[in-house]
Every structure is written in C-alpha cells, then in structure tokens.
Specification:
Layout: E1 2-4, E2 13-16, E3 19-29, E4 37-44, E5 50-56, E6 60-63, E7 67-77, E8 80-85, E9 91-95, E10 111-117, E11 120-125, E12 129-137, E13 151-155, E14 160-163, E15 172-176, E16 181-185
Antiparallel strand pairs: 1-6, 2-3, 2-6, 3-4, 4-5, 7-8, 7-10, 8-9, 10-11, 12-13, 12-15, 13-14, 15-16
C-alpha cells in the first residue's frame, strides 16, 4: 500500500531503497521557504542500520504489511532469547539485539507478538506495560517534596527508572516498557 511521505508515523514499516525499515522518530518541518517535509529516523529491520531521510509530500513510499504471530517467551541464555509459537509449539531462538532496550523487561512465560516478513522474524512486541519490583531506591531528600520531584530506583531486572518520592524498595510498580518510565503503583 503506497502512502505519502508526510503520512509516515512512528512504528510504520516501509520499503525504502530495497530494504525493510521501521520509522523510529518523525519530525514534521515547514520551513519558511520551500515545501513542508517529514524528517524520518528509520532503522533497517534486517541488518539494524539507522538512516535519516527527508520525505516531501509529493513522494510516496510502500508501506509493508507484516504477518504477526503470538509467541511465548521461554528463557534467556546469554544474548539468545528462546520463544515458542503458541499454536504450533515450535521454538525459535533470536538475538536479544532484535528487542533493543525492551529485552530487559522480558519475563518467563510472557506473551509477545512476533512480526514476520517472508516468514523471518524481524521484530518482537512486548506488552506496553509490565509489573516490576523495586529492589533499590534512593532516600527522599528533605525539603524536596514538590510533586514533580522524582528519585532514581533500580528494578528487579536491573533497569533504572525515576519514581515518585513516596515509592520505596520492595514496592511493586507498573512500568512503561518502551519509555522505561514509572506509570503507577501496582495493585
């Protein structure tokens, strides 16, 4: 399906110069002179290269549709992640680099959605939020009680996030996987 260059959104998968690319960041720019354009930061889903490209409204790109399949995360062995197809029970092993920073949030038995291009896995989508336990949190600094102040904390998976001052070690919280931010205290 062809779309205009200015209609590209983050997360879109497009075909560009013979490769399959995922739009990571976009910035719409309207200079004082000349036409508007979309500055798109893209990541090649096959080899991991990054590229910044300007698309004008007159340009069109091919938007790629990927097959999605439900998988379950089984275990991690170093940088190798093993997943199981929930329908066929077939197991596949992928490099942790395919997930980027989100790999730290994988939990045994977690349901994920794998995107396939020509039956080859190119991306893994985790749930948007997960529950994690805080194992270490800095003490509250006296006088720093403004509602907008946050303090650093370390989760049970080793990821550092900023949390409100009233959250301490041993508290279970909900974390946004992709932004790596505190969302709320878990129920």
């Amino acid at each position: 399906m062809k779309i205009s260059g200015v209609d590209i959104r983050p997360g879109n998968i497009i075909e560009y110069e013979g490769g399959i690319w995922k739009a990571v960041k976009i910035q719409h720019t309207q200079p004082g002179k000349g036409g508007a354009y979309m500055q798109v930061e893209m990541k090649n889903l096959i080899d991991g290269r990054k590229n910044n490209v300007r698309f004008r409204s007159a340009e069109t790109v091919e938007r790629v549709r990927l097959d999605t399949t439900d998988f379950q995360f089984l275990f991690r062995d170093g940088d190798a992640l093993t997943f199981m197809d929930k329908q066929t029970y077939e197991q596949i092993t992928l490099d942790a680099g395919i997930l980027g920073d989100a790999a730290a949030f994988l939990q045994d038995g977690m349901d994920v959605v794998m995107e396939l291009y020509d039956e080859r896995p190119i991306s893994v989508q985790l749930p948007d939020t997960i529950e994690a336990m805080i194992v270490e949190a800095d003490a509250v600094v006296k006088g720093q009680t403004a509602s907008s102040s946050y303090k650093p904390a370390v989760l049970d998976n080793g990821v550092r996030v900023m949390v409100p001052p009233h959250i301490g070690a041993g508290t279970k919280i909900v974390v946004d996987v992709y932004a790596q931010e505190y969302v709320r205290r878990a129920d």
